[in-house]
Amino acid sequence: MHSETEQPTTPSPTPSAPSASPPASPEGTGAAADRAARLAVTVFPVLVLVAGAWGLAAPGTFAGWGTNVPYLLGVVMFCMGLTMTLDDFKGVARRPWAVGLGLVAHYVIMPGLGWAIAHALGLSPQLAAGVILVGCAPSGTASNVVTFLARGDVALSVSVATVSTVLAPLITPPLTLLLAGAYLPVDAGSMMTDILKTVLLPVIAGLLVRLVLGRYVHRLLGLLPWLSALTIAVIVAVVVAGSAEAIRSAAALVLLAVVLHNGLGLALGYGAGKLARLGPPASRAMAFEVGMQNSGLAASLATAHFSPLAALPAAVFSVWHNVSGALVAAWMSYRAKAAAEG
């Protein structure tokens, strides 16, 4: 476990938000990495917001695109696999306690919050299932870079995100069945197959390509975040277009649910790290690994297994958790810097 002293981690100059975080780099590249990371985290939510507005204003533009969402998600996850290395998995073996705690916190706190918020707000069955499905998804694909901006433990963030993604086929379907089954029928077996095809296989394929063609892939690492961002933006546009009419009546309620879900997840994730005495940098990483979700996966599964309306919470979450993550990261970074100087 970490001590209470600050242990900043510096990633490479080309942070891979929103697909995954980059490996560590030598000293002296921190400023460039920080600028690139801030640019990615700033531009991404704006891009997604514009895509959502387009889908709402001109839903006919994306008519019939719903069947393409799983393939679009596969592109995002393949990009994530391209940014991964074997060291990401070695990090799990080096810190099993911290990674295990992050995994348990993620798959207990967020699904539980999703169910509680859906129940407390009296959401319709479709929206309730969508909120719960967001909570049952693995860690968000931008969490690693936001952790870096917050001066958190990037290595721990990468390890937790990696494990939560790999285990998603085994955890997300039964959790969704348990918590959302009272609202809508859930075919856990079919959902597991979909996650294997759209998440795990593309990630493994990307990792294998990185292992075989590493020197060529390295030249493209700077482009992968933006390809992922554009693809997720298209997913959001398609989801919003599919439920454009419902958004006008349910947008405020969905936004409230998403803000509560994400905010409480960030707070409880940080609290879990503090309670386990992991130290400030690791606690900051825990906040983002718990509070930020793979909303692209949630949107894809909701569209395929429920309805476009059920995918609306995931589309809103995709925008909001990047905005809130950047703001919370800036606040945490300021406090960490002040504590170090004081």
Helix content bin: over 70%
Fraction of residues in β-strands: under 5%
Task: Profile the largest sheet.
Answer: none
Enter the CATH topology name: Na+/H+ antiporter like fold
What number is the mean pLDDT? 84
Protein name: Bile acid:sodium symporter family protein
Polypeptide structure, described:
This is Bile acid:sodium symporter family protein. It comes from Streptomyces citrinus. This protein has 342 residues and is mainly alpha-helical. It has one domain: Up-down Bundle (Na+/H+ antiporter like fold), CATH 1.20.1530. It is 75% helix and 0% strand. The chain has 15 helices and no strands. Helix 4 crosses helix 12, helix 5 crosses helix 14 and helix 6 packs parallel to helix 15. The relative contact order is 0.20. The N terminus is likely disordered.
Describe the secondary-structure layout:
Layout lengths: L29 H28 L11 H15 L2 H9 L1 H25 L4 H12 L6 H7 L4 H13 L1 H13 L7 H25 L1 H5 L5 H19 L1 H32 L4 H12 L3 H11 L6 H30 L1
Helix pairs in contact: 1-6, 1-11, 1-15, 2-9, 2-11, 3-7, 4-5, 4-7, 4-8, 4-12, 4-13, 5-8, 5-14, 5-15, 6-7, 6-13, 6-15, 7-13, 8-9, 11-14, 11-15, 12-13, 12-15, 13-15, 14-15
Q: What descriptive keywords fit this protein?
A:
15 helices; globular; 342 residues; Na+/H+ antiporter like fold; single chain; disordered N terminus; mainly alpha
